[in-house]
Amino acid sequence: MSKTTFTGALRRAGERDPDIAVVTCALTGVLANRKQNAGIPYTPAEIADEAKRAYDAGASVVHIHARNDDGSPTFNPAVFAKIKEEVQSRCPILLNFSTGTIMDDVSEQTTIIRESRPAIAALNMGTMNYSKYSRARKAFDFDMIFPNTYGKIIKLLTAMNEAGVKPELECFDSGHTNGVWPLLEMGLLKPPLQFSFIVNVLGGIPGTVESLQLQTKIARDLPGSPAFEWEVIGISHGHWRMMAAALALGGNVRTGLEDHLYLPNGEMAKSNGELVEVLVRMVRDTGRRPATVDEAREILALRRDGEGSDT
What we know:
single chain, alpha/beta, eight-stranded parallel beta barrel, 36% helix, two-stranded parallel sheet
């Protein structure tokens, strides 16, 4: 199969080399803590140090949740601004800021988008049960609803559009992907789209090759056949298998201590850089190569100054 045929079978994202994969690193997340892994960063300086390790290992994008100094989550716009300052003082990696919250009020998130203007901002695309179950205890570790109504999505998306920030469409299930079409019809989303298909979260789609094939087919069949890029986010068990599946299917990939704490051999990762080193090796072992920051900016249709999107 030629490169053109191979790429066209999975996405319509214009002219781009299918051998290049964008590698993202999710540095800290919102739930994991240092009792689980001592390498999880909390402060802006620690997050920036981890971003530099990820960049040096071959990542071109970092996905960031902010923490207070004690490790608790925060959406304080000043903390995000400090994180941006610290990261940019160390390396030119592209910033992807989280906006995910269980609250209906997204005023802090829209302030972050408008004031910090990261290159990318994550946009959760649907409501779901968000739970973690312990088979050993036959009980739930946590069990909650993650609400993402269209009203909430539109507030965040409007802020992104006004600030020139690229929305990363986080889809935990097939309905989240299919549910993009009204936003396209309203003109709030414009191709090329950037999808992240999250797998293996209870309440969402399972971590299988068939899940990725379904999600990419739904994206490909959206009205107007919009151009798009996609990556897989493999949570916890099966993380590395899902990285391999996405690379074989032509997708982009994400690792990091938010998603998984262990190296493929079962050892606890000491840093985000260690995880990225493994993933970059996997990229190369599949005959592809990691995108540079400039290449990632081009592939994901970000503004040339790295501070927003062309759309």
